[in-house]
Structure formats: structure tokens, C-alpha cells
């Protein structure tokens, strides 16, 4: 089923949700922040006065011991500690009775010296004097010694500090609202497909079969709403047709056996044969229910699961950096990269094992099996006391993540027709990207508000919810095991896939470089570079969310373009080159804007190539997919590309102390661009005949 078959209804519902949620929340937030600003300004004045009085007490105590004001030692270090604990205060200073600056921290003396000389000494008023100096609000408090007034303590804060902080809060509210709308879209998509368009498609398919004379099926709809009522009436009508057919056939049999005229009996037999030829009914007298499996069945559980895992994306290196590091033989940079590398290793191992398990047990059971390590890993990651513990639990989480995603990917692959294969896998990519977008941005906000550890507990709760939802949506036999493929799978036999040069080139020069760029540059270096540049967690999350946002938009059009034109290899080649260029752009120019542009280009590159890469495998490995099962082959691809996921952060951690962060970004970008260029050169031969194994089979 096409996910956009009810696009008109879905768009109208989404527009209604936007109109209902956005205007009132925006207005309420604006009014609340305006009143908050009015109440905060006096509080900021009182805090500046409290800090100033504390400094006055400390300085006056030293002066009382006979130390001249201009001979005090360690004032700058003391001021630095105070400023670090009070970010709203911009500078601290001490001036003499002539207005000359003796000590100043947090501002340039040229910005304040002229004003202080004109102001001279502050009147002996313990409440001090507040004046505006350019963009600063300066609070001056008198300093008294044995002989009277000896100078002043100055506490300065930015006039626009409250406004800037409120704007940041308002921006966070807008981001949370945007993420909430995406969650609403996913829920609406589920509601429309699961309750409206999906059931009605079954009815349409039964009607189409009836037009062809096939009355052996009924739409298997068990809802209690209007659609369910319509289905029950429709099924009752179909049963009446079945009863009428059986009554007709019984009457014909009665005529054939009881009529005295042989010609009439023969004519009745001809009529019976004609009716049986034109119409087909279930021999048992009970039409079977038709329950079609749709790729959208697992979309919402997959969305919630990936959303839970992506919550820690924007702060994982920072969380690792804050924990104790106990291995002396590893550099601090490698220790910070270790949780990401081990997480990706767990995904690689789980992907290889998950393909075979999914073929045997089915997607539903494998999804539920993967929930246990995922929940345990999230809980214990929040309770970790060292980088080693965090890495261990992230590896276990990666194992669960791999099982769940392989199960969903296999289910979607089996329920998508060949003509809509890219679009079917595009629904998988779309759910993952939507979840990554929401998880990244909301994770940064939550970590800033409640801390790292509680954020992991929220992740564990969302994983549990996704498992409960999947158990409700899918039947126990939601994805029938591929027995033949499962029996024939053997590591030695599956390794023959590397004789297919197209598959090997795709893995080495397209899949692995993409993951190196993702984990080495985006997951590891970007948060650290932004943190070192002075950005806070919500700001880091807002920049990192550009990757899934751009990838989501590009992927939407790229999947449809690949379905219509079949230009899958070309899209993968262009995407690889674009990703390498984006990484180099982030390093060759200074500032946050080039880094954000590089993140966006990387998102566009992966959005262009992700779904076509998955859809290309059944085309170039159709013999292997027939022998071993499509899920097994796709799982092997995901396992091999995770090699790049493991290598990426380790390479970045090795390059970082050698050449700095900019040098590490250049090195990774150059490697990705070079490998993508090799794939682009070889991509032109992908359409030149069948691969080696198919030629052998044909011979």
C-alpha cells in the first residue's frame, strides 16, 4: 500500500493540528515570556547587588589587614571563579578613588575607563550606584578602608542578557513545538493508514476480486468504528451472495438429479459448469478473511524506538567527557569516542545475527527480543560511573537497536512490492529520520533541563512504549519465516556474495564511507567542536537537527525519483561526493555557519543515497536474495557498513590530537570524498550485464 494514498485527508488533518496547536501555544508562550522578562530584571539587579556586596566584604577584609588596594594578589583568578558560576554577569572590576581601573575581568578596559574617570569615586552609599555604559549595566559599590573610601567594586551585566536568554527559551519552545508536530504527523499517519485507508484498501481489493468472479475472501476488519460497521455490512452482503450461489447450485443439482427430461438435466449441468467457471466461491462455505500486511504496520513502533535511541545523540561525546576515564593506555580523545564505537560494534554484530534470526522467527518476535537489551542499555547508561561502564552498556543497547531495526527492515522489505520497493524502504528511512529529528532536538533540551542520566531513563520508557504498541499492531505471525532461506543460510555460502563485484564496490566505496562521515564527523566531532565554541546543549541540538531535517526532505523526493527513473546508482554516487564536499566545507571556513552548512550537505547526501542503496541490493544480488533470503542479504549489508560506523569515531579521535579538530575534519572529509569518487567512476559499469553468479547459473 502506498503510504500517501490518503495524502489529502492526512494533509487536512495535519493542517488542522497545526491551526489548533501553534497559534494558541505561540501566543501563550509569548505572553508568558514577556511577563517573565518584566519580573526577571529586578531579580537580576538584586543578584548583581548580592554578588557585589560579597566582593566588597572580601576586599575590605584584605584592605583592613593593611594591604594596599592596588597590591592585592589573585584578584583575577578570584573574579574568574565568580564569573564562571554566574554567567549572567559579564564583568567584575575594582577602581581606585580617581576612577582608574586596578583590576578588571570579563571586559576590555577601553570600554569602561573613560566612564570611570568621569564618574570618579562613588558616593559612600552602601546600596551603590547603577549606570548604563554602552551595552552594559554597571553597579558600583563603595570600598572602605581604615582611612575612608579607597575605591569601588564594579559588577556589570549585559542589558540584553534577559532578552537573549528569553529568546533562547522561546526558540526551545518553538523547536519542541515543531518536534511535537512531527510526532503528531506520525500518529496521524498511523491513525489514517491503520484505521481508514488500510481497511478501505482491503475492501477495494475484495471488490476488485469480485469483479473478476472471485468471492472466496472477505476483508478482515475488526474495528468498532464507522469503518468497522461498514465492513460488517459489506461482509454480510458478501455472505448473502455466497448463500445465493449455494442455493443456486443446490437447485441446479436438484434439477439435474430429479428432472425426468435428460436434455433439461444436461442443460442444467452446462449452466452449473458455466457458473463455476465464471465465479469462484470457497468450497467450505465460509469465505476466508483477507488481512494484508503493510509496510506502515511497523512505522509508528519503529519511530518511537528510534526516537528513544536518538535522544542521546547530541550529547553522547559530552556525557562521555564528563565521566572518569580509567584506561591509561588510551588517549582521552579515544576514550571519548569509545562509547560511540562500541555502540556501533553492537549494531554490527546484532545486524549480522539479526538477519538469520528474523528469517527463522519472524519480525515481530525479533523486535520483542531486541527490546530487552535496548531497555537495559538505556537504563544502565544513565547510571554509568565511568566511560568503560558507559561503553559496555552502549554496546548492549546497540545490539538491541540492531535486532529491532533489522526486524522492521525485513518486514517492510517483504511487504513492499518490487515496483514500490524504494518507496517501501523509504517509509523505513522516513520513520528513522523523523525520529532522529525529534530525538536529537528534544534530547538536547531535556539534557540541558534535567541532566544526562534522567534523559536516558526517558529513553528507556519510550522503548517500552514502542514494544507495547508493536505487540498490539502485529499478529503473532506478522512476518512468516522464510524456511527455505533459513535452512540454506550458512556463513560460508553467504560469503560468496563478495564474488559479486557490484556488491563489494557498493559496500567498500559507498556504504562504509557514508558511515565514517556519519559517526566520525557528525556524531563525534560536531558536538565537541560546538561545545568548545561556547554553544550550550540546546544550541548544539538545534544545529545537529539540521542533518535529519534535510535528510528527511531530500529522502522524500529521492525515493520517488528512484522509483520513477530507476537512477539508483547515480544517486548513490552523487550523494557520496556531496557528503565529502560538505565535510571539507565545514573545516575550510571558520565559524558556526560553515559547520552548519556542512551538516546540511551531509544530510542531503545521505538523504539522496540511503533508500536507493537499500533498494539497489535486491537488483544487483537477486540470486543471493533468492538463495539466502532478502532479509539476510540486507542484514549483511547493514553489518558491513557498520564497519565504517566503528572506524569513524576512532579515526576522528586519532586525528584530533595530531592535527586538531579542523585537521581531523579535513582528514575524514578527504577520505570520504576520495572513496566516493572511486564509486562514481565504477558506477557506470553497474548496468553492463548480469553479475558473475547469475552467468554461472545460466550456464
A few lines on this structure:
The protein is 74% helix and 6% strand. The protein contains 23 helices and 7 strands. The chain has helices at residues 7-64, 75-85, 109-119, 161-211, 226-258, 262-278, 299-310, 316-322, 332-361, 363-382, 387-415, 421-450, 452-473, 483-488, 491-494, 501-532, 537-544, 546-565, 568-588, 592-620, 622-628, 630-683, 692-698, and strands at 89-96, 101-105, 129-133, 136-145, 148-158, 217-219, 288-290.
Name of the CATH superfamily of the largest domain: MFS general substrate transporter like domains
Query: What is the level 1 CATH name of the largest domain?
Result: Mainly Alpha
Strand content: 5-15%
Largest sheet: 5 strands, antiparallel
Number of helices: 23
Low-confidence stretches: 1-6, 476-491, 688-699
The fold-level CATH name of the largest domain is Growth Hormone, Chain: A
Indicate how many domains the architecture comprises: 3
Rg, please?
A: 34 Å
Using DSSP, what is the number of strands? 7
Choose one word for the global shape. elongated
The share of residues in helices is over 70%
Strand order of the largest sheet: 2-1-5-4-3
How would you state the average pLDDT, rounded?
79
- Cα separation of the termini: 38 Å
Order of helices and strands: HHEEHEEEHEHHEHHHHHHHHHHHHHHHHH
Alpha-beta classification: alpha+beta
Instruction: Give me the CATH architecture of the largest domain, please.
Output: Up-down Bundle
Explain the overall architecture.
The chain is α+β, with helices and mostly antiparallel strands and 699 residues long. It has 3 domains: 10-164, 2-Layer Sandwich (Beta-Lactamase); 213-290, no CATH class; 293-687, MFS general substrate transporter like domains (Growth Hormone, Chain: A, Up-down Bundle). 74% of the residues lie in helices and 6% in strands. A 5-stranded antiparallel beta sheet has the order 2-1-5-4-3, sandwiched between helices. A two-stranded parallel ribbon has the order 6-7. Helix 10 (363-382) runs antiparallel to helix 13 (452-473), helix 11 (387-415) packs across helix 22 (630-683) and helix 12 runs antiparallel to helix 17. The longest helix has 58 residues, at 7-64.
